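Narrative of accomplishments. A recurring question from our advisory board has been how the design workflow behaves on a single, concrete structure rather than in aggregate. To address it, we present the structure tokens for one chain from the evaluation set, followed by the sequence designed for it. No filtering or post-editing was applied between the two.
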């Protein structure tokens, strides 16, 4: 089987380039952008589920209380606030495990080991899931705590940030 392909004359090429020059430039720019590297290897590890120190933000109850107190202090009429949070459950990490089962004639043994991977900073355990803490209750003490509007605004702010219901948030008036 023979293919009879005739290429257009150079005049036709020039005519096509003149007509479709903008489209060809856009296509070329798209190909260049697709081929352009956008991430370094560390970002690729993070997107594939690996953990790095920047990704793993350690939970600190005192830092959360301070940040929440700063936010509440900005509510009009609240004044300088102090926040105390109680935890129902702390941070829980579920680690990846590998199970090895051996069956003998009379008995079977089962051994579980934690999966460890080698990273840039040495070996680290593989975390499958990390559950953040759940809160039991919150106490907010602020000078504007006696005003019902301020009390409502503070309760809503704490509820939005902690997931607590209003029945588990107490707002008290403090010293001015």
């Amino acid at each position: 089987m023979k293919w009879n392909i005739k290429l257009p004359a150079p005049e036709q090429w020039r005519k096509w380039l003149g007509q479709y020059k903008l489209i060809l430039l856009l296509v070329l720019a798209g190909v260049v952008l697709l081929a352009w590297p956008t991430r370094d290897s560390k970002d690729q590890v993070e997107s594939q589920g690996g953990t790095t120190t920047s990704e793993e933000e350690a939970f600190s109850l005192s830092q959360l209380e301070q940040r929440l107190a700063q936010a509440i202090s900005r509510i009009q009429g609240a004044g300088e606030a102090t926040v105390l949070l109680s935890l129902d459950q702390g941070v829980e990490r579920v680690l990846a495990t590998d199970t090895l089962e051996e069956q003998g004639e009379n008995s079977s043994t089962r051994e579980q080991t934690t999966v460890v991977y080698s990273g840039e900073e040495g070996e680290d355990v593989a975390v499958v899931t990390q559950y953040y803490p759940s809160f039991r209750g919150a106490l907010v003490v602020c000078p504007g705590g006696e005003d019902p509007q301020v009390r409502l605004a503070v309760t809503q702010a704490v509820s939005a940030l902690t997931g607590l219901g209003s029945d588990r948030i107490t707002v008290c008036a403090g010293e001015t």
